[in-house]
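Re: [ENG-882] Designed sequences occasionally contain unexpected residues at chain ends

Forwarding the minimal case from QA. C-alpha cells:
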C-alpha cells in the first residue's frame, strides 16, 4: 500500500456532505421543515404540530391497550409529548430526545401599563438571550390565557398577513452616546424589554389611564379578558420573521427557534417512518430545556419514567421499570455551534463542526472541565458511529467552543441518570 492510500485509510476525513447528497431530496425535506418552523414558534404550538404529524401517521393517544406494533403518544400538559412504537423486544427501548421550547419573552404577571402616552407590556425573558437582539424587531404574541370562569382562550396576534405586530423600541443613535459605552450585556437590560402595545386613548375625560383602558376594552370585547386574567396566562412574544433560505444557492435556513425545532422535526419524521422496530422506539419532545429542564414537563421531571411505568403495566411485563430503563439507550437531538468565520477565536478549529459537513455527533457538551454534561461511553459512541457509517450518513464531531469559552448543555445528562 502506497503512502497516499495509507493516508486515506489512517486520516480522519471531514468531507463536504453536499457532494454525496441528493440535492432535490434535501430541498424538498427543508421546505416541509420551514413550514413546521413557521407554525411551531412556541412550545404549545410546537406540541400541537407534533401531535398533528403523529396522528397523520397512524399514532393514537395512549390508552393502556398496547401490543407489538402499536403506535401511541402521551401528551403532558400540552407542553411535552412522548411518542412510542412497541417493538419486538418490549423490555428495552431506543430513544431520541429533543426539546420544544426556545428562548423568548414571557409576559410578567401584571404586564400592562401606560406611560408616555403609550400602552406597554412588561416582559420577563426566558432562556439565554442577547437582550439587544430583541429590540426594534417585529414580534408576535402567542399563548393561552385563562379567564376567571375557567375558560381557556388561545391568542395569536401578528402571525397573519394583516395582523399588527409589536416592537420594543431601542434608543435612537442620535441620543445613544452613553448607551454605546456600556457592556453588550447592559446595553439593553431586562427591565428595558417593554413592548409597545397601543397608542389610541378612549375619548372619555373621566378615565385616568385612557390608553390602558382602550386596550383592556378591546381585549375584553375580543377575548373576554380582564386585567386580572394576565396572572393566569402563558403569553409569549416571539419574532415575527418567517423562515427564509439564506445564501445565493439557498443552502442555509435562517429562522427563529431552530434550537431545538430542528431536533424535534427530524426525530418526529424518523419515528413516523419506522415500522416493526426490533426494540421499542420512543421520541421524547420535552419542554423547559432552555432554563435547565426544570418543571413537570422538562427532562428533569419523571414524565419518561411515569410513561415507562404505564407502558410496562399495559403490556403486562414482569421486568422492573428501572431495569427497562437501564437496558435502554438514548440520544439527545440538539444543536451545536458551527465554525463562524467572523468569530473563529471562540473555536478550537481541530475540534469544531462545519456547516455542510454532515450531522455533528458530540460525545459531551457542558463547559470548562466537562461540567454539566453526560460524557458518553466509548462503546456507545462506537455503536452510533457504526450505524451512521453503515447507512452512509455523513457525520462529523466537535466541541461547543474552546475549553474555557462558554459551553452549553442538553437533556442527555438527565436521560443518563436512569442508568
Amino acid at each position: 500500500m502506497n503512502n497516499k492510500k495509507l493516508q486515506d485509510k489512517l486520516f480522519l476525513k471531514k468531507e463536504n456532505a453536499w457532494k454525496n447528497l441528493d440535492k432535490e431530496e434535501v430541498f424538498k425535506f427543508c421546505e416541509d421543515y420551514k413550514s413546521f418552523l413557521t407554525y411551531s414558534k412556541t412550545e404549545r404550538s410546537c406540541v400541537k404540530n407534533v401531535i398533528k404529524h403523529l396522528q397523520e401517521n397512524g399514532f393514537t393517544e395512549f390508552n393502556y391497550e398496547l401490543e407489538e406494533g402499536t403506535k401511541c403518544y402521551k401528551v403532558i400538559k400540552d407542553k411535552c409529548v412522548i411518542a412510542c412504537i412497541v417493538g419486538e423486544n418490549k423490555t428495552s427501548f431506543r430513544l431520541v430526545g429533543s426539546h420544544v421550547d426556545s428562548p423568548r419573552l414571557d409576559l410578567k404577571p401584571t404586564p400592562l401599563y401606560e406611560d408616555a402616552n403609550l400602552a406597554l407590556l412588561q416582559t420577563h425573558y426566558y432562556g439565554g438571550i442577547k437582550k439587544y437582539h430583541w429590540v426594534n424587531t417585529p414580534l408576535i404574541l402567542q399563548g393561552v390565557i385563562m379567564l376567571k370562569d375557567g375558560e381557556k382562550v388561545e391568542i395569536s396576534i401578528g402571525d397573519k398577513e394583516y395582523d399588527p405586530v409589536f416592537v420594543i423600541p431601542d434608543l435612537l443613535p442620535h441620543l445613544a452616546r452613553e448607551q454605546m459605552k456600556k457592556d453588550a450585556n447592559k446595553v439593553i437590560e431586562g427591565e428595558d424589554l417593554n413592548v409597545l402595545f397601543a397608542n389610541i386613548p378612549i375619548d372619555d375625560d373621566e378615565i385616568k389611564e385612557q390608553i390602558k383602558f382602550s386596550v383592556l376594552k378591546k381585549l375584553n370585547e375580543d377575548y373576554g379578558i380582564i386585567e386580572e386574567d394576565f396572572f393566569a396566562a402563558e403569553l409569549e412574544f416571539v419574532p415575527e420573521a418567517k423562515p427564509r433560505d439564506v445564501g445565493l444557492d439557498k443552502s442555509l435556513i435562517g429562522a427563529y427557534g431552530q434550537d431545538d425545532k430542528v431536533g424535534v422535526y427530524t426525530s418526529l419524521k424518523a419515528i413516523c417512518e419506522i415500522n416493526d422496530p426490533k426494540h421499542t422506539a420512543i421520541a421524547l419532545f420535552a419542554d423547559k430545556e432552555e432554563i435547565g429542564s426544570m418543571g413537570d414537563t422538562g427532562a428533569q421531571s419523571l414524565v419518561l419514567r411515569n410513561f415507562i411505568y404505564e407502558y410496562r403495566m399495559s403490556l403486562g411485563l414482569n421486568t422492573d421499570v428501572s431495569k427497562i430503563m437501564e437496558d435502554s439507550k438514548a440520544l439527545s437531538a440538539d444543536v451545536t455551534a458551527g465554525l463562524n468565520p467572523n468569530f473563529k477565536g471562540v473555536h478550537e478549529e481541530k475540534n469544531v463542526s462545519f456547516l455542510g459537513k454532515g450531522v455533528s455527533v458530540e460525545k459531551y457538551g457542558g463547559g470548562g472541565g466537562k461540567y454539566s454534561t453526560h460524557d458518553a461511553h466509548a462503546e456507545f459512541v462506537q455503536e452510533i458511529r457504526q450505524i451512521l457509517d453503515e447507512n452512509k450518513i455523513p457525520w462529523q464531531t466537535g466541541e461547543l467552543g474552546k475549553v474555557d469559552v462558554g459551553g452549553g448543555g442538553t437533556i442527555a445528562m438527565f436521560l443518563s441518570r436512569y442508568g
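QA comment: On inspection the terminal residues look reasonable. The chain has two domains: 21-100+244-418, 104-239. Proposing we downgrade this to a documentation issue.
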